[in-house]
Write a structure and sequence with these properties.
The chain is an alpha+beta fold and 446 residues long. It has eleven helices and 22 strands. The C terminus is likely disordered.
Length: 446
Amino acid sequence: MTDLHALAEEAVVYAWPLYEMSRMRAATSPHRTEAGEEAPPPARWCNLFTPSRQLLRAGTSRVVTPNNDTLYTNAWLDLGDGPLVIDVPDTAGRYYVLGLLDFYTNPFAHIGQRLTGTAARAFVVTPPGWQGELPAAFDAPGARIEAPTRWLWVIGRILVDGPQDVPAVNALQDGFTVRPLADWQAGAAPRPRAFDPACDPKAPLTAGHFAAQVNAALRDNPPPTHEFALLARLAAAGIGPGAAALDDAQREALQAALDTVLPRLRAAQSGQRLPSGWIQPRVVEGSFGDDPLGRAQIALKYIGMLESREATYPLAWHDAQGRPLHGGARYRLRFAPGMLPPVDAFWSITMYGAGDYMLVDNPIDRYAIGDRTPGLRRDADGGLTIHLQHAQPAGEAARANWLPAPAGEFYLCLRAYVPREEMVDGRYALPPLERVDDDDNDKDTR
């Protein structure tokens, strides 16, 4: 491998989160408000919360591994003109979180039940290096958030207790607003700002497209000063805030790097695989620090993750014998008495097809099982057994605890919101995914 090709691979790992953020900003920022106001093409709106009004079901998500527990409310914030104020409603104890990602995908701040409570409050987000005066209202602990980058992605999640609870959460979503500080002080109504994302999120991933998006992002969102020397070195591969258009050698090296690095990142395991079949996820904190490889892996496969103390997500692609999970087999997941996932908010297990990473269409319209699922049957000793399979179980109790699987391969994600320390550090062990034969499964009618 030539020095230029090695440098290009290093550049792709470092810059992939910037590319993904640019692409997601173009794909998810709205061109029309809920009131019907359209931004002039090709502009879209920022500084505006955009709510998802219905729980996600099979075929309704634009992001992989979506959840079926919360309603989202998202906003892209541009701090280029100064501080912005986020107002949140009183959720009366209902779990919610606003996760703030900088443009390098670091989950650097969280607003919500765990850290700031559920009462109505206002939070000010200041641009990098901003030194102005703030009203006394923002002297309260946690009320001022200092942003590492000009552009931020705010991903909000509000707990929903089933379809009948959606209207109540829709009303809460309307209470999340964002305004420039001066407008907030004047009591002016929230108003979005139009911007040009300068990115086609469906464009083919070519070296030229990649470099253009990354270099624009670097100009708007400079990295920490200790990374300046790295950027100076990556400039030889065509990556940097002042980089010119790619020459032929840079274009060839970057394209080869994209074709090589991305499959490698997709195949890499993010976490520790346990004998039970579960993968204990790596601990994500407010910053990935000097771990560009870990940051790139998360950005590629799980962009928008919260820090682990807010939520952790063990995954399972295999059973306890190491075989891929498949709808042609039947599985049992039994939590012994007192051994349900230790959380201070809620937990759930969601089913996904391994081919598209999406929720699985099924005859009972059930995509997840968790601590709020109505009608679950406890075992005689107080434990809980979940049945995972494509065909409907034979026993009444097994049907009540059935999480339907696709006909082909699948995987599971356990979401633990506000996990206790033993869930984060791995001391709590999830039960094994046991593959059972037809006779054993049919007999299990507890």
